[in-house]
Amino acid sequence: MQLLKDRIRKDGIVKQGNVLKVDSFLNHQMDIELINEIGKEFKRLFEKEKITKILTIEASGIGIACIVAQYFNVPVVFAKKAQSINIEGEVFATKIESFTHKKTYDVIVSKKFLKPSDRVLIIDDFLANGCALVGLIDLVISSGASVEGIGIVIEKGFQSGGEIIREMGIHLESLAIVDSMNAEDGTVVFRGDK
Amino acid sequence: MQLLKDRIRKDGIVKQGNVLKVDSFLNHQMDIELINEIGKEFKRLFEKEKITKILTIEASGIGIACIVAQYFNVPVVFAKKAQSINIEGEVFATKIESFTHKKTYDVIVSKKFLKPSDRVLIIDDFLANGCALVGLIDLVISSGASVEGIGIVIEKGFQSGGEIIREMGIHLESLAIVDSMNAEDGTVVFRGDK
User: What is its EC number (chains A, B)?
Assistant: First the structure.
């Protein structure tokens, strides 16, 4: 998605350790106009999948998922990072390791909101090692629903998550795949760039 | 807002301890169509305030704030619950006590995203004791920006938050104010009900 790549080049900040900061437009301050364009693009890419529900994970996926959901006319469900699982039995639960925060979360979705008949589109802002996505896929499978697609705003193509998910045979679309970045001169190379 | 009150009566669940669960349409599963109507109503209520930015706090406020922001054509900034404040100097920070989770969070907003010229509308799903809101107001004041309004979806009118905020002279609008609820028969009494 050219608009997104242009914006990453303009306002993204490359930091040491392969960190790409997009907090001025995507995950701290949010440019709603840009995210609407992202919503239209996901609609185009997943139009045929007869999506009934959009699933994401708190926190930074929620706003994107809500804007995207308008183009599919379906509800959003966001998985919660649980303090403790004391609602056993009423929820689907999984564990997700966060490398950013160096801890493991219990992540839950109420059984009321994922049903075997649901055709789920998973939406998230970033895909790196894929831990969060694998956890979300696990929640959907637990419910008997199907993962009909995964829409990612920015994929770090040099990490393994994208490959893991694609090898599962899931329809994954990333609107910008970063193949490399350089913290010294701030440049970003996207997959498909000449 | 009648549509919202009707929905709370229909799908809200009253639990012991003055807990009102609205997780089927507002803060776990999200009914985007309803939230669009909420957005239109906030636009009507705060139309004159020349809002330049919407501020909320993760996690459940984010989706609502993003949908609402579309009616104001402004960006959303969400305050983050910090793991630790190791970015001192670059952020406005405050502490917010959560009674639900029985802990105190450091809450931060990057200094890049709140400027003295900003006219801020704060959006959140619930107002009870007001701790989260007072923290967000504190962040805005730290930045030199002005709080032009606060839009709340559901206020627990029998808790002190609403009174505290209104006594500050801030333009607070709650779309549904619950004056009492009864866990035994599941009834909810809204302010203004006959």
Answer: 2.4.2.22
Are A151 and A45 within 8 A, CB to CB? yes
Tell whether A15 is in a known binding site: no
Nearest to B59 among A32, A58, A70 (CB): A58
- Give the C-alpha distances (Å, rounded to integers) separating A44 from A1, A102, A173, B66, B169: 12, 36, 11, 21, 47
Residues of chain A with pLDDT under 50: none
User: What are the phi and psi torsion angles at A45 (to 5°)?
Assistant: -75, -30
**CB proximity under 8 Å: B 12-41 to A:** 23-25, 28-33, 35-36
**A27 is known to lie in a ligand binding site:** yes
Q: Do B66 and A23 touch (CB under 8 A)?
A: no
Cross-chain Cβ contact B24/A63 below 8 Å: no
The domain spans of chain B are 2-115+130-152+167-189
Instruction: Provide the CATH topology of domain B2-115+130-152+167-189.
Output: Rossmann fold (3.40.50)
Average confidence (pLDDT) over B148-176: 98
Instruction: Scan for tokens 């160096």, then name that residue.
Output: A102
Q: Does B72 touch chain A (CB under 8 A)?
A: no
ipTM value = 0.95
What residues pair up with B29 in beta bridges, in sequence order?
A77
A38-179: what fold?
Answer: Rossmann fold (3.40.50)
pLDDT in tens, A50-76: 999 999 999 999 999 999 999 999 999
Distance from CA of A38 to the nearest CA of B (A): 14
